[in-house]
Design a protein that fits this description.
Largest sheet: 8 strands, mixed
Number of helices: 8
CATH architecture of the largest domain: 3-Layer(aba) Sandwich
Helix content: 40-55%
Mean pLDDT: 82
Structural class: alpha/beta
Distance between the termini: 60 Å
């Protein structure tokens, strides 16, 4: 039953329209079959009745008995019914085609608007980063995190919410950059983040991490990332606390809920950090909470 519900939820309106059309076609063919069956039985019955009760040996064209006229008229109705089922209604009508074309155009317009908005957002991010980098020639060390209203970022070394838009936001910002993290954060992931250079901070001198650079301090991690104009620090709580004083920017997703956890994001001191942008998003089927993207730059 669960499997059925899961599949049925994936049927969109266009597929539903096609299913309804197919059901209507099946129903119309059944009606035609019944009509044909009744025609055969009715014609034979009326002709036999004519032979028994109303037969004339010599007939002119206008003197055919009622059974012949009835069968002829019924045959015309059957042929008309046959035409409707197999010719007129065989193909999806023009009205349906226009409706589908209108839907497709609307979907494309929405998609184009979304792509345009994403491109404008990326262009704005790039422009702001370049402007900030020009004023600050050193690397733009950026701390990126998602935290609840009470600064919780995780529990039992796991994420405590699913926000599809935030994951995409994280991916877009960090793609192609160094990502610096603590050992526990690295071990919470199934593997090293693709399309990024992963740097893991740990006190364990013999620690090995597949597809990642292992260092023993934040300073070593930043040295490894010195070639990157914008390395990102991605957690966990202790690394955030250690790094916040040495970063230039904070990309914070504020999740608008209060939740229990055991890993926390440090308080942002508004005397040291200035909010430069914000973008609110609302919960939907892919995002279980309302949330806001905030960007803070360190006050110089």
């Amino acid at each position: 039953m669960l499997f059925k519900n899961k599949n049925s939820s994936n049927i969109n309106e266009d597929q539903l329209a096609l299913i309804e059309y197919a059901q209507a076609r099946i129903k119309s063919k059944k009606k035609l079959f019944y009509h044909f069956s009744f025609f055969i039985i009715g014609s034979i019955t009326s002709l036999l009745a004519n032979l028994v009760f109303d037969y004339k040996s010599e007939l002119t064209f206008l003197e055919y008995s009622w059974s012949y006229w009835l069968c002829s008229l019924w045959l015309l109705l059957l042929l008309f019914h046959l035409f409707n089922v197999y010719v007129k209604n065989k193909f999806i009508g023009k009205k349906w085609e226009k409706e589908q074309l209108k839907k497709l155009v609307e979907k494309q317009q929405i998609k184009i608007s979304e792509i345009k908005a994403e491109l404008e957002k990326e262009a704005r991010i790039i422009a702001e980063s370049e402007l900030y980098s020009q004023k600050n020639p050193k690397s733009l060390v950026t701390l990126i995190a998602a935290a609840s209203e009470n600064n919780v970022i995780g529990k039992d070394n796991k994420l405590i919410w699913h926000l599809s838009d935030d994951l995409k936001h994280f991916k877009d910002l960090t793609k192609g950059h160094f990502v610096i993290m603590g050992r526990k954060t690295f071990e919470s992931m199934p593997k090293a983040l693709p399309n990024r250079t992963n740097v893991v901070i740990t006190r364990k001198l013999d620690y090995k991490a597949e597809n990642a650079i292992v260092v023993n301090s934040l300073e070593q991690a930043l040295l490894e990332a010195k070639s990157d104009k914008q390395p990102f620090i991605i957690g966990g709580g202790e690394i955030y606390k250690l790094a916040i004083e040495n970063t230039d920017r904070i990309e914070l997703t504020r999740v608008h809920t209060t939740i229990e956890g055991d890993a926390f994001f440090p308080e942002i001191n508004t005397n040291l950090w200035q909010e430069v942008s914000s973008e609110k998003r609302f919960k939907d089927d892919k995002n279980e909470y309302d949330f806001t993207f905030y960007r803070y730059n360190k006050i110089k």
